[in-house]
Design a protein that fits this description.
The complex is a heterodimer of chains A (235) and B (238). In chain A, 80% of the residues lie in helices and 0% in strands. Chain A is an all-alpha fold. Chain A has a single domain, classed as MetI-like fold, CATH 1.10.3720.10. Chain A is globular, with a radius of gyration of 21 Å. The mean pLDDT of chain A is 91. The model of chain B has no long low-confidence stretch (mean pLDDT 88). Chain B is globular and about 50 Å long. In chain B, helix 2 packs parallel to helix 4 and helix 4 runs parallel beside helix 5. The chains are: A mainly alpha (235), B alpha/beta (238).
């Protein structure tokens, strides 16, 4: 019990002293997860709109594939991205293996199906309301896509959060393609795994506490944004 | 049939319901002239709304042609706009809905959002969600959006159904102004006094077929069709 108590005290000391090594890891984790989330949203939301408002053969199969990919094990994603970006892989020429770029790519593969699948459901609901309006007023496709996204923003925040949660808490994929290299690709989750295996509990605990805190902060911000948007909408 | 300088020519228009195995629309020949208010009347289920939707292009017929003979000098002017019986709006405020439509049309005829809201008496509702407006306000907003598209032809599907006298008066006044301004109005209504007030020619539809198309004065004074006369008096349900 004493060991745990000591670990907690050291963890809080690291946090309150703004330990440079600790916050370097936290900063890199956030940079990678936020970047992959932004890229996934830019790609995923328009695809979600497309799948929601168009009808073509193979559409339901495509939706089923994206739904299945939501639960893809991170280690499998890590392995696929590893094969893609390794020297002999099709993207080997990019030379991004064991860099944060490979980690962003891996997280992108993990988040994209979540963004696409969940947003398709939301846009399908909105499409039922909007299809006549868009047809009557001949709203151009580009404008329609922007309108679908902007008019669903309160629901999209939840999806955005789900994607961020998946990205920031993931360890299997980023450890394979990032390699957990100190000062280069070491992020919160990979450090927690490494330090725990080494028996250095204070750093692992400190990171664990920060991870929980980030998750809490993001949820609070998202809830406030939803309340604000709802107030705007309902006057 | 009345002789007209035709703006809309409908030939052999045929729409069949596969579910019910019956003809929904069966119009061999129908024309609408350039500058007037045409009223479409008929019993419930006659095909009036379907005809408007076919003209607008919201649904496609099985066979037949709908020809719109209008080439605007202004390339931004649209040909047709429709006000639906059950209008749908964006999940936005009244003001934002109007702005959205005005921004879609590059030529705004110098109309500002404020002008539109003033004209349609929607100023006090500008910050209310469109879907939360009352029935009459929704009808005014729907007409405002249709008119804001700057279309030559306005198709209005029962624009004053269930509206109070004020909304009815306001909407009729705007319809007349638009017609005077050179718009072609095709109006579906069950309201006989309204058809008399607004209509210059009347198309009577029953079971998807045009029973009569006549100048309003002739139609209401001595329709050739006995059944129509009885229908107008409320003596029979067709």
């Amino acid at each position: 019990m004493e060991v745990f108590l000591e670990a907690f005290i050291t963890a809080f000391t690291l946090i309150f002293n703004l330990d440079a090594a600790l916050f370097e890891i936290v900063g890199l984790s956030l940079k990678i997860s936020v970047t992959s989330l932004i890229i996934a949203s830019i790609i995923g939301f328009p695809i979600g709109v497309f799948l929601a408002i168009t009808r073509f053969s193979g559409r339901s199969i495509l939706i089923s594939i994206f739904n299945s990919l939501m639960g893809m094990p991170p280690v499998v994603v890590g392995l696929i991205v590893y094969l893609l970006v390794s020297r002999s892989g099709p993207l080997g020429w990019l030379e991004i293996l064991y860099t944060p770029y490979a980690m962003i790519l891996a997280q992108l593969f993990l988040i994209l199906p979540i963004i696409i699948s969940l947003s398709t459901q939301i846009f399908e609901e909105l499409h039922k309301e909007y299809k006549d309006f868009f047809k009557i007023f001949s709203v151009p496709p580009k404008k329609s896509v922007i309108t679908y996204i902007s008019d669903s923003k309160d629901s999209l925040i939840t999806i955005f959060l789900a994607g961020f949660g998946r990205a920031v808490s993931e360890v299997g994929a980023v450890i394979i393609v990032g390699g957990n290299i100190d000062h280069v690709t070491r992020v919160m989750t990979t450090t927690i795994a490494l330090e725990t295996s080494k028996g250095d509990l204070p750093l692992a605990l400190a990171l664990g506490i920060i991870l929980l805190f980030i998750s809490l902060i993001i949820n609070v911000i998202a809830n406030r944004m939803k309340i604000k948007i709802n107030k705007e909408i309902n006057g | 049939m009345v002789e007209m300088n035709d703006l809309i020519k409908i030939k052999n228009l045929f729409l069949i319901s596969n579910k019910e195995n019956r003809n929904l629309i069966d119009i061999s020949d129908l024309q609408f002239d350039n500058n007037s208010i045409s009223v479409i009347m008929g019993p419930n289920g006659a095909g009036k709304t379907l005809l408007l939707n076919l003209i607008q292009g919201l649904i496609l017929s099985n066979t037949g042609d709908i020809e719109i003979n209008y080439n605007s000098k202004n390339k931004d002017e649209r040909k047709i706009s429709i006000m639906m019986q059950k209008p749908s709006f964006l999940r936005r405020t009244t003001q934002q809905n109007i702005k959205f439509i005005l921004e879609l049309n590059r030529d705004k005829r110098n109309m500002s959002c404020l002008d539109v809201m003033e004209r349609f008496d929607l100023i006090s509702q500008k910050n209310i969600l469109a879907n939360k407006l009352s029935g009459g306000e929704r009808q005014r907003l729907s007409l405002a959006l249709a008119i804001s598209t700057n279309s030559k032809i306005l198709l209005l599907d029962e624009p004053t159904a269930n509206a109070d006298p004020y909304t009815t008066f306001k909407i009729e006044q705007i319809i007349k102004e638009e017609a005077v301004g050179g718009k072609k109005i095709i109006l579906v209504t069950h309201n006989i006094p309204q058809a008399k007030r607004l209509g210059q020619d009347i198309v009577f539809i029953h079971e998807g077929k045009v029973l009569e198309h006549q100048k309003a004065s002739k139609f209401f004074s001595h329709s050739k069709n006995k059944k129509i006369n009885q229908f107008l008096k409320g003596e029979i349900i067709l």
